[in-house]
Amino acid sequence: MFRTFRKIGILTSGGDAPGMNAAVRAVTRAALSCGVEVMGIYRGYSGLIDGDVKPLGLRDVSNILNRGGTILYSDRCPAFKTEEGMKKAVDTCRRLDIDGIVAIGGDGTFRGATDLTLRGVPCVGLPGTIDNDITSTDETIGFDTALNTVLDMVDRLRDTCESHARCNVVEVMGHHAGDIALQSALAVGATAAVIPEIPFSQDELYEKIRRNRKLGKRNFIVIVSEGMGPDYAPQLTQQIQQNTGVESKFARLAHVVRGGQPTLRDRVLATMMGEAAVDALFDGKSNLVVCLRHSGIVLTDISYALALDRMYKGLLSPGELDAFSPEHIAEMKKTCDERRAAMQKMYDALNRLGL
Ligand code: F6P
């Protein structure tokens, strides 16, 4: 271990996600086991700017592994994007002797971690978001719990749809990513999923509903990702009713999908990732995000992770890849292709198997 580490900070930022507390516990206990003090930074980067920081001991993180939300609280912090905000954050670290930070959140959190690293505070990121929209990791902390919550909610909706011979259109969170919508649709046996990544034919959906209604099917579930825009799912609900004659209801699950006890899978993922973040930091590594790739925990450079994300989302600006080697660019393209292929495969299975 690099002896320079005497005290580290930990924060959660952006939308909260089940499993964040498990990560806070793992980071705290892993650091304490090396004799390094841990400071809990409250309200994400806002707390770092304001100096809203308290020591975390072994017992402070007891009984939080199973709790949703984040005991450190969270927010989105526009002030941190300013030079003044960043200077205040670095000053807090200097004043309190914080030698490094583990930052849990999504891509905005990682950009903040890079800014801090560049200003002399080494940071390691953990991917915590229900959206699963961090391309460098196969799974984010919170995704599995969110899926299971959708499953529970939609199973209930299906019961009443079956009784009344209705269709229910259900909008789920996911920001611009369709992962929650698609995987939950597969798991509930939905008729269709509508996600921003893959073109969708409403006419084919109406036809499918009409055909299966004639064959005696009573309930229909259609899952829509919020990435389609706020009006899409309510309008689709009306159009299904008009075009098929099947009475249709709309439900927006919204933030309910972000709360609740983390699943076993999220607890294990958060714990293993939290431990890996501390080990990386104490090995003198920084500006990394801990990822899950092909079932193993790996460390990925934050700049690589952010560029890969932008490539996958079609957001790259000219010259953005200049700093990367041809091998890295090829690897990024391969990851994007793999991710798209996996999504398409699930989408095709859903269309084939869901009535
Ligand atoms: O990123 C997580 C997420 O829940 C998204 O799915 C959603 O678009 C967004 O956050 C909602 O943010 P807020 O909690 O600020 O309304």
Question: What keyword list fits this structure?
Answer:
single chain, 355 residues, alpha/beta, Rossmann fold, 2 domains, seven-stranded mixed beta sheet, four-stranded parallel beta sheet, 11 helices, 16% strand, binds 6-O-phosphono-beta-D-fructofuranose
Q: What's the gist of this structure?
A:
46% of the residues lie in helices and 16% in strands. It is built from eleven helices and eleven strands. The protein is elongated, with a radius of gyration of 22 Å.
Plain-language structure description:
- With 355 residues, the chain is an alpha/beta fold.
- The chain has 2 domains: 2-142 and 262-315, Rossmann fold (3-Layer(aba) Sandwich); 145-259 and 343-353, Phosphofructokinase domain (Rossmann fold).
- 46% of the residues lie in helices and 16% in strands.
- The protein has helices spanning 20-33, 44-50, 83-95, 107-118, 143-164, 179-188, 202-214, 232-244, 264-282, 302-312, 326-353; strands at 7-12, 37-41, 53-55, 100-105, 123-127, 167-172, 192-194, 220-225, 248-252, 288-293, 296-301.
- It has a 7-stranded mixed sheet with strand order 3-2-1-4-5-10-11, sandwiched between helices.
- Helix 1 (20-33) links the parallel strand 1 and strand 2 (37-41).
- The longest helix is centred in the last third of the chain and has 28 residues, at 326-353.
- Residues 15, 106, 129-131, 173-175, 226, 258 line the site of 6-O-phosphono-beta-D-fructofuranose (F6P).
